[in-house]
Design brief:
Blueprint: H1 8-34, H2 41-49, H3 53-65, H4 69-75
Helix pairs in contact: 1-3
Amino acid sequence: MTGLGMSIWEEGRIEGRLEGRLEGKVEEILDFLEEIGSVPLEVSEKVRQEQNLITLHQWIRLAARADTFEEFVRNM
């Protein structure tokens, strides 16, 4: 047992679920941005590096409303 009485397996499962949620939000943002056009590498990298679920959730809303990449980046 580690941490708060969780087994290594339980910790790994929780970590895996978090990674899955992060990746899902990243893909949702990039899907919205691809509707504008080919996503610039620097924008894609910044989105992929973000690890905060709340921030990613906010960026989903921004990406859904943005008309340009510049507008998205300016409001990140």
